[in-house]
Amino acid sequence: MSNCLIAQSGGPTSVINASLSGVISSSIENPNIHTVYGSINGIQGILNHNLINLTSVFADSKDKLEILKTTPSMFLGSCRYKLPEASEDETEYKLIFDILEHKKIKYFFYIGGNDSMDTVLKLSKYAKNNNKDLTVIGIPKTIDNDLFGTDHTPGFGSAAKFVATTLLEISYDTYIYDIPSVTIVEIMGRNAGWLTAAAALARTEHNSSPDLIYLPEVPFSIYDFLNSLKQIQKTKKNIIVAVSEGIKDKDRNYISSCENSLDDCFGHAKLSGTGKTLEHIVSRSLGCKVRSIELNVLQRSAMHIASLQDINEAFLVGAKAVEYAVKGITGKMVTLIRTNNEPYTYIIDYVDIEKVANKEKLIPIKWIAENNGDVSEQLIEYISPLIYGEPNIRYKQGLPVYLDINHLINK
Amino acid sequence: MSNCLIAQSGGPTSVINASLSGVISSSIENPNIHTVYGSINGIQGILNHNLINLTSVFADSKDKLEILKTTPSMFLGSCRYKLPEASEDETEYKLIFDILEHKKIKYFFYIGGNDSMDTVLKLSKYAKNNNKDLTVIGIPKTIDNDLFGTDHTPGFGSAAKFVATTLLEISYDTYIYDIPSVTIVEIMGRNAGWLTAAAALARTEHNSSPDLIYLPEVPFSIYDFLNSLKQIQKTKKNIIVAVSEGIKDKDRNYISSCENSLDDCFGHAKLSGTGKTLEHIVSRSLGCKVRSIELNVLQRSAMHIASLQDINEAFLVGAKAVEYAVKGITGKMVTLIRTNNEPYTYIIDYVDIEKVANKEKLIPIKWIAENNGDVSEQLIEYISPLIYGEPNIRYKQGLPVYLDINHLINK
């Protein structure tokens, strides 16, 4: 009988704890696993001897695992820490494997994005090269949906549902006054525009907005943008623009830094985000009412409007990782493979970690609409099934009930 | 048999259409009322001859009235238009009453805030002074909760639930990294701090944030604020500050304009809101990670997390207005009277419109905590029951189903 260890890394999503809940549930039930450990603040928790016994926290409480499944943020904390190449400096690897061996840990699960998969890659390589008995499995998460080797990432569907729902509600909010307006909504994603593209889902039979969608994959022209606005204003009073925080001009300069763009750019890079920058440009150029809205961290933490599909997938991806690990599968990331789009079906598989680590999957250009400022029907069809279903959240006195590590463990 | 007219005015709330749904339902069922008209863009719809027949839209569709009940924004559009004093200029009054008489309208319902109640006051006065057969009833709404004569306003509970839920989720989002941080959340309310105070509800048995709450009712000192942060940082890593957009210094200057405040204020009034201004001050003074988040229009439009209590009260207040009007009651606003706090019970009544129009109800100083930077237990107990219950929203393909006037009526 061996033990297992779980850690979380990178930025949060609404459902990264659903994956954690999946790993814990599956590990506790697995006859090959004795104790389930959690590392506080990612890989740094091992280096800092900061491991907690999750079996003792959760074994007798299915109830807590259910609440954990619908708790946003990262129950075990996070880190953004990159291991050095073992060939250059072996010190930390020796420390890590000493602790793992001391704790009889044979299975290590790391829930994270493309940077975190670098840790999975390095640890699995080191184990192999040094005949260490450790299987290392990566479990994908990121609202950015920018991981290779998987149809999509857990966390994306919930962020997409928040973006689409909020864009729909903002669109309703803007039509009430009988004056022209432009509302610019800034959405997360420095390089990959998947989440910004999800704004297109807000177009329903009762709502035609957003009217323009700008992704970081294609160069952004302020000139074209203003022209498009003027064109749309001829037939529509209230315009909604969804814009990625990471849009760049043709020379790859961020619009938010806006130094080389146009005369009417104020260049207050430190104060303004992309939305604020565009707000001032539009306000000066068109003179109509302009508002910018930054969705901010709500995109990755609004569990109350998470996608049930996403929660369930995140949980299953975590559970399946345990199954793979005890079979001796190592140096892989668990993946979701879409087997049909309508009705949406999928299977869970795994992929070589080399194909994922440190890489960024952008939207294929063919999925971006030919006229810059929109996305293709294909892209909308790809995202649509991922936002289905409402979360089964417990409420108490009007607020969602979430699980907090400090409440469970006296650190 | 007479007809009735309904209009909406001022800023939107998540539940102002629930009140509209209540007026329409009750009017359609009332034997004294023949046709229910709606005025597009508030009182201006009358002046512009822009009335629509709501009976023909809704009479055969209970279903649509149910969807309207959970649709955010303002179905009939809005305006911010103040009638002149009739003693100074009677022209518009004559126009309005001509149209009302022509359409055989005997009952007029105006859903709005303190400015809109000015319209109710003036029209009811004019009717009385000129022997016009019109009863005018005001129906309260505002996320600001700043109307006199009512325990609270429909719209406030839902905005409060959004603020509390979001603060809870932001608080979870901030604790994951092992570094100190300050997160500043800017909440709507230029003069009244009721909505900012609702941030205190995010404190649950698993969450102690927000740590500081600043209301516009008491002067804000940047010096005291920075001292409080330093004090809290001694025992807590991640600090959450809830701040009203309307906080002012001791000379009543808005902190967001920040001209006379401190050396480390950048004074970018046009670019920055209150949160951004404080972000830069804290960043320069404390040097730790600082983020500001503006909740923006989501506070008034996020129907997906509205309070069921609020939706139901908004509906009933609308329905009751019809009952009062056909009894000949005029120049009044419908009110909510709390009869018990725990368990929460209330009755519906009405109040003289003079007591409400153009006035602003601020938080009583005794309800603000003695140490500036927090609210009292009494204030929390007052707000708590208003956020209970989740809305029964219909979902389609992962998104809430809302009702749009352009879809129902070919304008």
TrEMBL record, chains A, B:
Positions marked as site (Important for catalytic activity): 141
The cofactor named in the record is: Mg(2+)
Q: What is its EC number?
A: 2.7.1.90
* Domain of life where this protein originates: Bacteria
Class of enzymatic activity (EC top level): transferase
Coiled-coil blocks: none
Q: Where does Mg(2+) bind?
A: 114
Keywords, comma-separated and alphabetical: Cytoplasm, Glycolysis, Kinase, Magnesium, Metal-binding, Transferase
What SUPFAM superfamilies is this protein classified in?
Answer: Phosphofructokinase
Can you list the GO cellular component terms from the UniProt entry? cytoplasm
Q: Which residues bind substrate?
A: 142-144, 188-190, 245
Q: Name the chemical reaction catalysed here.
A: beta-D-fructose 6-phosphate + diphosphate = beta-D-fructose 1,6-bisphosphate + phosphate + H(+)
Known regulation of its activity is: Non-allosteric.
The yes or no answer to whether the keyword rRNA processing is present is no
Pathway(s) where this gene product acts: Carbohydrate degradation; glycolysis; D-glyceraldehyde 3-phosphate and glycerone phosphate from D-glucose: step 3/4
One annotated GO molecular function = metal ion binding
Any single biological process term in GO: fructose 6-phosphate metabolic process
Site label Important for catalytic activity and substrate specificity, positions: 115
Binding-site list for diphosphate: 11
Q: Which Gene3D superfamilies match?
A: 3.40.50.450, Phosphofructokinase domain
Q: Name one Pfam family in it.
A: PFK
According to its UniProt entry, the function of this protein is described as:
Catalyzes the phosphorylation of D-fructose 6-phosphate, the first committing step of glycolysis. Uses inorganic phosphate (PPi) as phosphoryl donor instead of ATP like common ATP-dependent phosphofructokinases (ATP-PFKs), which renders the reaction reversible, and can thus function both in glycolysis and gluconeogenesis. Consistently, PPi-PFK can replace the enzymes of both the forward (ATP-PFK) and reverse (fructose-bisphosphatase (FBPase)) reactions.
UniProt similarity note: Belongs to the phosphofructokinase type A (PFKA) family. PPi-dependent PFK group II subfamily. Clade 'B2' sub-subfamily.
Protein name, per record: Pyrophosphate--fructose 6-phosphate 1-phosphotransferase
Q: In which organism is this protein found? A: Vallitalea longa
